[in-house]
Amino acid sequence: MKNPSQQRLERQKHQLLHEIYKQNNPLLFRERKPRRKRKAPRESPCYNPSPTYNTSKAIELRALISYLSEHGHSQFMSLTSDDLVIILDSGATCCMSPYPDDFKDSTLKVKQCNIGGIGSGLEAKGIGIATWTITNTEGKQIPLDLECLYVPNLPCRLMCPQQLGNAKQTSPYPNGAWIGGGSSAKVCYQGNVFEFPYDKRSNLPTTKTVLGIQKYCSFVSSVETSAENENLSAAQKLLLKVHHRCGHRSMREIQEWAKDGRYGLPIELSKCKAPLCAACQFSEAKKKSADKGKLATDTKPGDFISVDAMEAGTPGYIPFTRGRPSRRRYTSTNVWSDHSSKFIWCDHQEEKNTESALESKIAFETCASRYDINIKHIHSDNGIFASKDFIKHCNKKKQKHTLCGVGAHHQNGSIERYIGVLSGRARTMLLHAIQNWSKVITPEFWSFAFS
Fold first, then answer.
1. Is residue 227 very low, low, confident or very high in pLDDT (cuts 50, 70, 90)?
2. For residues 303 and 265, what is the distance between their CA atoms, to the nearest angstrom?
3. Residue 93: its pLDDT value, please?
4. What is the dihedral of CA 214, 215, 217, 218, to 10 degrees?
5. pLDDT, position 223
């Protein structure tokens, strides 16, 4: 029998031989990861007892929503980074969202199913719990945690009122009860009433989530001009500061100023590589259209004028130099442009009616007369510009007046483009101002940024 010292030596010998064998045969002793149990795809819920499955009608509605959102329609265009459109769809099977940021956790796989309502014909990629924060009729912000399908090809969020009725009752008012008459649809949920005004162009009940800049702040992880940022040179940081101070002017234009020695800018700004402004990149991000065309070929200023009204989703402040704060607010803006000189003139309005349109027209003609320009042709869309008083005023001035076709806003594409550019520039300055002075600057300052 071996003594303890011999047994210890024998164990050490076996351990050494085992280590040598492991090094010579690494595949036999590789670490194996535990197998994860694959979760089976979930069944898609259907809270609507009678959903609608009309694919052709749904395609037309999705195309209309995409067009309105891309061309700066007030009800479908976001003022900040967080307010996005929600449509009340009584024909949907359940709530749907095209934004993965809406979901609390990662979405789970879902089995192939037929989607009803505006999403008919599309494919769901996942399912999860989404959080939408909506303002009720009392002005309170109410977060809603709803089971939603993730449908990437949807143009906006869809809320199914029948799904709200299946939630646990916590108030005497029935969940999911809704009234669709009048100028808006009203839905009850957990003792709250949410209002969905009908859009004038699409006749769809729509609302928006609360205003905020959380997505923009997450996009801008750090301030570009901070001393800790080593990716930018001193000239680039100064160029960004001048870019912010000048209302997010073009970097090329500022570099031309520095090259010509204007405004005391150093020559180094014209030689450095133009940095990217996070506010400009975020607010101007959109799809580009491949369609190109030209509406007029006139070469003299005043020969062809386009006009359109931009509706504001949020009332804007009116600047006053004295007196007490007023409750008066701007609700729309008339934008005029000359096709020859590319001159743009904006006029904010408190009310969108014929009287305001005539006052704006007279003010624009007064501005043109200062430069000895006579207005000969005005091109506009329908609405307030097709009223009898407006046409009568054009005939009195011996001006030709043409209108776009019904729903054919592309026939006045130049002014639609200008409105989109001006709205993007105003949104850029507003987001940047809210980020740096959130206690004072609110979305109601859009009228200052637009001007």
1. very low
2. 39
3. 84
4. 120
5. 46
User: Which stretches of 156-248 are assigned E, i.e. beta strand?
Assistant: 157-159, 178-179, 184-189, 192-197, 206-208
Q: What is the pTM of this model?
A: 0.50
The answer to whether the beta carbons of residues 286 and 299 sit under 8 Å apart is: no
- State the helix-helix crossing angle for 234-245 and 251-260, rounded to 10 degrees: 110
Closest to 178 measured CA to CA, from 157, 152, 205: 205
User: Under a CB-based contact definition with an 8 Å cutoff, are residues 10 and 2 in contact?
Assistant: yes
Residue type at 59? I
Enter the tokens of residue 422.
């001006």
Average pLDDT of the chain to the nearest whole number: 79
What is the amino acid identity at position 304?
Answer: F
Report whether 349 contacts 381 (CB < 8 A).
no
Domains along the chain with CATH numbers? 55-210 (no CATH), 225-276 (no CATH), 305-317+328-450 (3.30.420.10)
Could you give the CA distance from residue 64 to residue 42 in angstroms, rounded to a whole number? 32
Three-state secondary structure call for residue 159 = strand
Contact between 92 and 117 under an 8 Å Cβ cutoff? The reply is yes
CA distance 435 to 160: 34
Residue 295's pLDDT is 55
- Tell me how far apart the 2 most distant CA atoms of the chain are, in Å: 126
